[in-house]
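Annotated sample (chain length 493).
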Amino acid sequence: MLFIDSLLAALSPFTLAMNFVGVMLGMIVGALPGLGSVVAITICLPFTFGMTSVSAIALLLGVYCGSICGGSIAAVLINTPGTPQSAATAFDGYPMARAGKPGKAIGWALAASIFGGVFSCVILTFAAPQIAVFALQFGPLETCALILMGLTCISSVSANNQFKGLAMGVLGLLLACVGMSPFSAESRFTFDIFALNSGIDLVAVIVGVFALSEVLDRVERMRREARVENGTSCRVQLPSLGEWRGRMSGLVKSSLIGTFVGILPGTGAATAAFLSYGEARRSSPRRGNIGKGEPDGIIAAESSNNAVTGGALVPSLALGIPGDPVTAIMLATLTIHGVTPGVRLMTENPEMVYATFAVLMLSNLLMYPSCVITTRMFSFLLRIPEQLLMGFIAVLCILGSRGNLFDVFVTVFMGIAAYFMRRMEFPLPPLVIGLVLGQQFEMSIGQMMLFKGDDSWLAFVSASPIAMVLLGMAFLLLVVPQVQNYRALRAKR
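Output written by the structure step:
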């Protein structure tokens, strides 16, 4: 009865309209490189003051879900991740689009996004209280072990040349260390540049590494190659049931990873996407094609980063701990509307909790019509001559730097550097993986040092069974591929 009442509240005409407006707005803003979920949520926040709490949450959750899914449109069509969460989608989505299947690539991304979001809603509707209690067991040690397992993705996405891949991963970790130390007032790697004290903006790096370097590479190829037609239209083509054969296990696995990572406060959808993508590189039956336009890579990234939306609501609503910056804004919205998030919310205001889950499920279902409309808008880019298209993407890269002049310099510098890295066949994904996970990794290590005391590291690690399991999995993820490569080489000999 409680769930039915919450569903009826979510299906009221005004709430449903606000939900669709939010999904549509989020889809458009997410597809514009560099803007992202936080900007879209911030734009909508003032409009929620005159709404009920359920309608306000419907608008913001719609923007949240739509922006994450919308980032995949730009990632697929122009190799420009609209949001950091979509960076992993571009690894296989853009090659599939270059192969003449942009609509199919977006269809795979959309189907995986909807499944991942609905999957997390179904799980959290029934298991939110129990999962919230389990999330409390993750301290600095467990978080550090989880991120360390995520860093093993570097070896998976650089199988062709692991030395260059590891070098790029270390460079990403070094870039994550730029700025003020989180545990002291010491500036690191700033070279007396004041703007670097706050660190290097992740969006500026991603836009420069993937988008601007692609522009430079395409311009260089235009000088020596005949012009290739981009196509005349792009319609979303959902995969058939037969095409899902052999891929459902990876879809469910990635959705589980995204839901679990979303529950952990402070991790985010970008971390979940890279974790799932690395797992797909390791375990997919078609792992040899991942990175060349394989749907398994798109499924892993998109189902995982959209499953985070449901997972992030668990610590936000049940514990009052925001799972990411977007849910932090939502907590402020609830407080404005007189709803106090925290441990008592599940018992004192269960209608609000279940209405939120119902709204989130509807937001994921509304992504289909919103994505179809937004993709048709972006399909006009495919009719533009390549020279004008590259200029337009370059302008988007500058606008995606958020109006900060220094971030524009970072975008341009990283774009030029990434162009030369492409020419020297250095893999770019490990750089982003190191940068995304580096700050969280350093924070968890610092917290571990504060709590460690005089005990030995072995005793400290052995005190947490969860950390031991995660570290064991990280070790296996590094060793098993090497053993397989050795056996394959020995069999060939």
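Annotation: The chain has 21 helices and two strands.
Annotation: The mean pLDDT is 76.
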